[in-house]
Design brief:
mainly alpha
Length: about 80
């Protein structure tokens, strides 16, 4: 009788393990396909709209004014 319990438990654990592997494989494929979908979309590679607006709004006069206040080209203050 104990042999049948051991066979049943082994079968149950083996089947559960195989079902888990199959489920992991399916979910892994879905994740890869979703990742490829987002990478192939043109909108995914565009810069954020806020960054594009910031570049458009920035004028050379503002840049010159900032550099005349003691800032070097890398943003560190000069020896003032």
């Amino acid at each position: 009788m104990w042999i049948w319990i051991a066979i049943g438990m082994g079968s149950f654990l083996g089947l559960a393990f195989l079902v888990g592997l199959a489920l992991a494989r399916v979910l892994g494929k879905i994740g890869l396909q979703i990742g490829e979908f987002y990478e192939r979309e043109g909108w995914a590679t565009l810069p954020p709209t806020r960054a594009a607006k910031d570049v458009e709004e920035q004028h050379p006069v503002e840049v010159e004014a900032k550099s005349s206040h003691g800032l070097s080209s890398v943003g560190h203050t000069s020896g003032r």
